[in-house]
Amino acid sequence: MGARNINSAGILPLTLMERRKTHQISIGPVKIGGDAPISIQSMTKTDTRDIRKTVFQIRRLEASGCEIVRVAVVDEKAAQAIHEIRRRIRIPLIADIHFHPHLAQIAMESGADALRLNPGNMGRNRLKPIVLEAKSRSIPIRIGVNSGSLEKDLFERFKGATPEAMVISALRTIEWMEDLGFHLIKVSLKASDVLRTIEAYRLFSKESNYPLHLGVTEAGRGQGAIVKSSIGIGLLLHEGIGDTLRVSLTGDPVEEVRVGYEILRALNIRRRGVEIISCPTCGRCEIDLIPLVKKIEKGVDQITAPLVVALMGCVVNGPGE
């Protein structure tokens, strides 16, 4: 390897790997996979049956840059509420359904743009009419494989929810759907364990070209959750794996969107809003920098243009650098 490829510290430059080419699907007007931009998703924390609160939260998400939103469908009333919610929002809506496949039928009739289903807690016989209906309506389905709801036979065979077991779960569901003539598929392979999540996505990306939804499930709240999500999602994106993402945080979903964009910005994949660069401060600091940074952060919060603002507290981190 030539010396010109190594920097002055003797370290290879860190560059993004070429993005894996995947089959492209559309959720409403938003394209996922192929050469489409990596999209940011979130999920409402409201009771979907409360249409007013759910719409209000989605509008906040829209303002923060969320491009696709998911809502929990817990019963028929929640599935029916999708009709009115969808009418009042601008971004595509995904119906998140567990245990009760018949709710997917109602959600599709109510205008859901896509479905999120977990084969591990439904079973093929109950899913078949839903897949055929989604095919007739050209509605995409995310196969959501979670380590906590893996099929019993795979759990026993692999002695746990290993990355290999998760990938086999996804692949055999894909094969079954393809046999039904359905190809509008997106896949996620999530665990709350970062390394298991990364390995599952790596293994799957070698076996299939269906688009991948990235995330570390049940990451928690606060700094720990942001770190887990940033490492898990960021490493995969750096390796060229991933077509859309959701940062799963306990708390305000708007924060999920902000962290998602920060991950993309840190990797120079997408830029939205103002990036604030500020020194950590030390004994040389000549101003009370921390309140100033907080004030500027609040002041530029609604700016969507990709700008950089630097706030430095001394000559070393300011003109000196």
Secondary-structure element sequence? EEEHEHEHEHEHHEHEHEHEHE
Largest sheet properties: 8 strands, parallel
User: Strands across the major sheet, in which order?
Assistant: 8-7-6-5-4-3-10-9
Give the helix tally: 10
- Structural class by helix and strand composition: alpha/beta
CA-atom Rg in angstroms: 21 Å
Helix content: 25-40%
Shape designation: globular
Description:
- The chain is an alpha/beta fold and 321 residues long.
- The chain is 40% helix and 16% strand.
- It has ten helices and twelve strands.
- The strands form three sheets. It has an eight-stranded parallel beta sheet with strand order 8-7-6-5-4-3-10-9. It has a two-stranded antiparallel ribbon with strand order 1-2.
- α8 (222-238) links the parallel β9 (213-214) and β10 (244-246).
- The two termini are 31 Å apart.
- The model has no long low-confidence stretch (mean pLDDT 91).
In short:
The chain has 321 residues and is α/β, with parallel strands linked by helices. 40% of the residues lie in helices and 16% in strands.
